[in-house]
Recover the amino acids of this structure.
């Protein structure tokens, strides 16, 4: 696992006409791995020939990497919107100016563009209809690669719930870098005047995906806030399932074991109703309580339901 500190906040709000899910991450310094800057050898797992080529623009590369990863698991690509870009760029600028990682801005401070995500979008000129959904993820790090920052946000499980929401339709991103080369990357997600088609009704998608290779074998739980595994530090790579936000996902069984063994790993289940910080009803994850073995294939089994209709899935991935 690349060594980057992430601080995460995840908040969900709901009403009859609007839904919001936001998460942020920020981090400290460095990585022992080289920052990716070319395709296809970015050092990330599960790549194929459609991986984007780096532009060395953090905002663009981060956005492209998010769309690439969504496409790998069958989610629709998000359309880039210049108005959402403006809101995201303004928020990255605010964080850089004020040396803070946050979803909320304080009126009167330099760079202020709106207190909340919905305020910043509206102030940038975005016009909301109904129903709508919005989300935000933020990363701050001394690694200047948009690919790296987006991949780390996908690793952090509460971020992943936002990034892999199938029904988002549009995206905007912005980045700002200090004189000390510390960068803030903000990605904002929107579904407006109705939700996107998402994935087929009654189905789920998984991460890692079936057959994915070079998957990291660990994740530092302490680098997420709230901490998904409060009593552990280094744990195994999170495994998740996702469906459309309008659907109710329930979990009957969710297990992982090394291929060829008969013993399930001890895990922590993150699902609405059992994990206080999982506020979306449409996704669930398991986090192995110990680091996964290197160069090992793991078999995952999920059994549950989407809106009461049974769904089962078995798949495998291999660690680096």
């Amino acid at each position: 696992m690349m060594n980057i500190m992430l601080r995460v906040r995840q908040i969900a709000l709901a009403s009859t006409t609007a839904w919001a899910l936001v998460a942020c991450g920020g981090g400290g310094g460095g990585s022992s791995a080289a920052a990716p800057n070319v395709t296809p050898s970015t050092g990330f797992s599960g790549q194929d020939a459609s991986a984007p080529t780096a532009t060395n623009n953090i905002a663009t590369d981060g956005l492209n990497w998010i769309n690439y990863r969504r496409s790998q698991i069958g989610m629709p690509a998000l359309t880039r919107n210049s108005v959402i870009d403006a809101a995201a760029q303004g928020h990255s600028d605010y964080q850089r100016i004020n040396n803070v990682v946050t979803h909320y801005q304080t009126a009167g401070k330099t760079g202020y563009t709106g207190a909340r995500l919905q305020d910043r979008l509206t102030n940038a000129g975005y016009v909301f209809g109904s129903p709508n959904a919005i989300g935000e993820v933020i990363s701050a790090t001394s690694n200047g690669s948009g690919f790296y920052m987006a991949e780390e946000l996908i690793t952090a499980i509460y971020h992943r719930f936002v990034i892999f929401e199938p029904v988002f339709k549009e995206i905007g991103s912005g980045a700002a870098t200090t004189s000390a080369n510390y960068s803030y990357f903000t990605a904002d997600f929107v579904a407006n005047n109705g939700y996107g088609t998402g994935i087929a009704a009654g189905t789920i998608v998984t991460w890692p995906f079936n057959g994915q290779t070079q998957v990291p074998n660990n994740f530092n739980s302490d680098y997420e806030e709230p901490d998904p595994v409060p009593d552990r530090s280094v744990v195994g790579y999170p495994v998740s399932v996702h469906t459309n936000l309008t659907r109710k996902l329930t979990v009957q069984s969710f297990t992982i074991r090394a291929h060829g063994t008969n013993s399930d790993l001890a895990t922590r289940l993150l699902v609405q109703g059992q994990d206080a910080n999982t506020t979306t009803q449409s996704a669930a994850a398991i986090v192995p309580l110990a680091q996964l073995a290197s160069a090992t294939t793991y078999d995952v089994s999920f059994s549950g339901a989407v809106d009461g209709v049974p769904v089962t899935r078995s798949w495998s991935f291999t660690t680096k």
Observations:
- The mean pLDDT is 88.
- The first helix runs from residue 58 to 72.
- The two ends are 10 Å apart (CA to CA).
